[in-house]
Amino acid sequence: MNPTHLLTFSVVARFKSITKAAQHLNLGQPAVSGQLKLLQTEVGESLYEREGHQIKLTAAGEGLLNYTDNLYHDFNQALDYIQRLKQLSVGHLRIGATMTMTSYFLPHHVVQLQTEHPGVKVYMETGNSEEIVKNMHDYDLGFVEGSVEDQSLPPNHQLTPWKTDEIVVILAENNPLCKKYPETVPLTIFAETQVIWRESGSGVQKEVMKALKKAHIDIATDIVVTGVAGVKESVRAGLGIGFATAMAVASESKGLTSRRIESSQGMLWQLNIIAPKPEIQSRVTRAFLQLCFPK
């Protein structure tokens, strides 16, 4: 038995009209009549009689109608849900983002999305760039830092540059190196004192390591902490120097100061968005990306 025929029968029975049921189901009258005929053939007896422009259920039809209530209810619920999806008054957005992105770059856009579309729920999970890329199958959008190999991306996804940030060295305000380097620091500073390193999957850590390797500077990674907050607290405690994005330092710099690396331009790097290709993006995903890239 075709469940579509049962749904059609249920709608016809409630409207008592094939014409009205066809309009509700967005079908032609011949299609509705054909489905009813096939259902009656399956049942083996008449389910309704015509009374002018309306129909009246037979005893068999009344009995069958009792078993189609859920079909009719679920169909109308689905129609309502689809309509709300189109109006962006329902839905959810799952974001995977680095701690830096979650803390300093995304909150404004999330608030704006939920202000404009109150029915949309946003779920954010934090991790380092490596973790976000690895778990993209769990997210609608990924916000990562630094370079990402194309072959690491899931199928039908693409990497789009979003913002440019800067990696800076973090020092305690009373660190003697502040006087030695009043404006910028050379990469060799990482060899002059103890360094507080980020975890291996951190995009910031990878970028610094890449620059040190290119400059042929070998550094021991004696102290490793997770997250930029751990770096800042360790630097404040006097364990050594650290590094983070300029945005992260600017948001909370009590007892800390920062220096640009190498030149007046600093060590710039890219913040990126991983998103499904446009043809498979949900409406909520498209709406959030439009907030990230305002025209």
Keywords:
295 residues, alpha/beta, Arc Repressor Mutant, subunit A, D-Maltodextrin-Binding Protein, domain 2, 8-stranded mixed beta sheet, 24% strand
Characterization of the model:
- The protein is built from 14 helices and twelve strands.
- The strands form three sheets. Strands 3, 4, 5, 6, 7, 10, 11 and 12 form an eight-stranded mixed beta sheet that branches. A two-stranded antiparallel ribbon has the order 1-2. The protein has a two-stranded parallel sheet with strand order 8-9.
- It has 295 residues and is of the alpha/beta class.
- The radius of gyration is 30 Å and the shape is rod-shaped.
- Helix content is 44%, strand content 24%.
- It starts with a helix and ends with a helix.
- The chain folds into three domains: 84 residues, Orthogonal Bundle (Arc Repressor Mutant, subunit A), CATH 1.10.10.10; 96 residues, D-Maltodextrin-Binding Protein, domain 2 (3-Layer(aba) Sandwich); 106 residues, Periplasmic binding protein-like II (D-Maltodextrin-Binding Protein, domain 2, 3-Layer(aba) Sandwich), CATH 3.40.190.
